Amino acid sequence: MKLSGKVWKFGDHVNTDLIIPARYINSSDPDFLAAHCMEDADPDFAKKVRPGDIIVAGDNFGCGSSREHAPIALKAAGIAAVVARSFARIFYRSAFNTGLPIFEASTLYEAVREGDEIEVDAERGLIVTRGRDPQRFAIEPIPPFMRELIAAGGLMAYLKRRS
Amino acid sequence: MGMTITEKILAAHAGREEVHPGMLINARVDIALGHDVTAPIAIEEFRKAGGRKVFDRRKVVLVADHFTPNKDIKSAQQVKIMRDFAREHRLDHYYEGGKAGICHVLLPEQGIALPGDLIVGADSHTCTYGALGAFATGVGSTDLAAAMLTGELWFRTPESMKIVLTGKPPKWVSGKDIILYIIGRIGVDGAAYRAMEFTGAAVAELSMADRLAMANMVVEAGAKNGIFAPDAVTEDYVKYRAERDYLGWASDPDARYASVLEIDVSEIEPQVAFPHLPSNVKGLSKVGSIKIDQVFIGSCTNGRLEDLRLAAGLLRGREVAPFVRLIVIPATPEIYRTAMAEGLFDIFLDAGAVISPPTCGACLGGHMGVLADGERAVATTNRNFVGRMGHPGSEVYLANPAVAAASAILGRIAGPDELKGVHKL
Ligand code: SF4
């Protein structure tokens, strides 16, 4: 699984209220959620983001509430992956369960700027920055069953496919 | 080797003699909880997996509390999905309308969440039940779906962090202040993935309401769960409520901890968390003069009877400051009724407060008290993120109910001691 896309940068402790404000979670329609994704950080984010873009963030991404609307909104907005220094626990589980690939990388954050292109190689456990002076960053590879789970579109679809 | 209370509960539910931090286990759950925001997604996932029957209709608990009484068409649709599912599966524990309260206050009160249980809920504040001596943690909707279907879920056994509380809390210092103080010290990811175990001589003095408020907020430090070993206070709270048998576990003397934090609670003053992180705390004496527009007393952190009594004690014979709104939301129907019977509603109404039926409401900027751009609120809740209670340009200051009540009267963030010169009606 290889993903490449343009970087959107967010800082530390990006919480689920920022990813999808509580005022919109009276719905669980992915398209509706996507339209308001990251709105309180950047009101035009949903308009500007392109399918395949990648979020790069600092520590504790996805902290706060357990709303699965957060990974759902990111995925529906077109975000192909989130690379952060660390993730909050519930978000970490839910991202995989909903089929949103996420990666921990300790030093990537400082090395990239918003708008840079990066390539994530989930099998080899590598992130490469695109451009004149490519840099490489090691990440924990996603094990095969997790890749299958993501390809199926989430835990339940994966379980069903296997049963 | 000794085990912590968290490890013992997990081991018992995984059918193992022993577990240790880092170990991945599959464990049986006693309660699987969802609410009107998270359950509809779980129900859809349940169906996607081909689910026809819940694992145990007594153990799946659904509560309509977030946007209820349904605030708009979208919320009504969500609750309908949940209600239809509860009816179809004949769930014993479905709460809506006059039976519903905020889930994390309702479950302990109704004796559904009990000591020794393993509880998962599709809500991050599911960790609240750790106050009873249960292992309780928040999960996403898909995990809830898996738990509703199979009655099991995988877990990574967390490392434990021991918090030793000593001393006697000063007047006006509650469980809320102790947990805010701890979050201020260790940060919003200071306990990431860990169990926070509260021990020490001061624990015996903490009421169940204090403990519930503390366990409620451990997730604000990133913890997986928070836990208090059951004692006499727990027994008193649980014995007439429990709907089934329960077990009291305790950590072994030689249990291992990733870290130990000692806190003398006699040195803590009431705490206020400034926008926009719960770790952004200051002692009340260092707050300065901050004018406010709204005060909210309620939520799964501080919407209990003890909290309302405390606030009413200060509001009795006094009035809310001009141009300030005070919103009081008793967390459950039982609290609502008792507060009314005790005359607290008269005090609130005389002071100029609004009393809402039990709901999460204002806590998440859902309804019943949403903030406008630039407005400031003091709230007895647990989160003050950007836009948490309304417009992204609004601000939320977290505090205990006594500080909230005093602030409502003075129109700025203030402590109860500042009310001395304030005339009663
Ligand atoms: S009261 Fe607030 S924090 Fe508690 S469950 Fe409701 S929305 Fe969540």
Question: What labels would you give this structure?
Answer:
heterodimer; A: 163 residues; seven-stranded mixed β-sheet; 33% helix; B: 425 residues; alpha/beta; Aconitase, domain 3; five-stranded parallel β-sheet; 13 helices; 29% helix
Description:
The complex is a heterodimer of chains A (163) and B (425). By secondary structure, chain A is of the alpha/beta class. Chain A has a single domain, classed as Aconitase, domain 4 (Alpha-Beta Barrel), CATH 3.20.19.10. Chain A has eight helices and seven strands; from the N terminus they run E-H-H-H-E-H-E-H-E-H-E-E-E-H-H. Chain A has helices at 16-19, 30-35, 45-48, 69-77, 89-98, 108-111, 144-152, 155-162, and strands at 2-9, 54-57, 81-84, 102-104, 117-121, 126-129, 136-138. In chain A, strand 2 (54-57), helix 4 (69-77) and strand 3 (81-84) form a beta-alpha-beta unit. Chain A is globular, with a radius of gyration of 15 Å. Chain A starts with a strand and ends with a helix. Chain B has helices at residues 5-14, 39-48, 73-88, 103-109, 141-150, 175-186, 208-216, 232-238, 299-302, 305-315, 333-341, 344-351, 401-410; strands at 24-28, 31-35, 60-63, 93-95, 118-121, 135-138, 152-156, 160-166, 195-199, 225-228, 259-264, 271-273, 281-283, 294-297, 325-328, 354-355, 376-379, 395-398. By secondary structure, chain B is α/β, with parallel strands linked by helices. Chain B folds into two domains: 5-16 and 23-264, Aconitase, domain 3 (2-Layer Sandwich); 269-418, 2-Layer Sandwich (Aconitase, domain 3). Chain B is globular, with a radius of gyration of 21 Å. The mean pLDDT of chain B is 97. Chain B has a five-stranded parallel beta sheet, with helices on one face. A five-stranded parallel beta sheet of chain B has the order 16-15-14-17-18, with helices on one face. The chains are: A alpha/beta (163), B alpha/beta (425). The interface between A and B is large, with 41 and 48 residues. The complex binds iron/sulfur cluster.
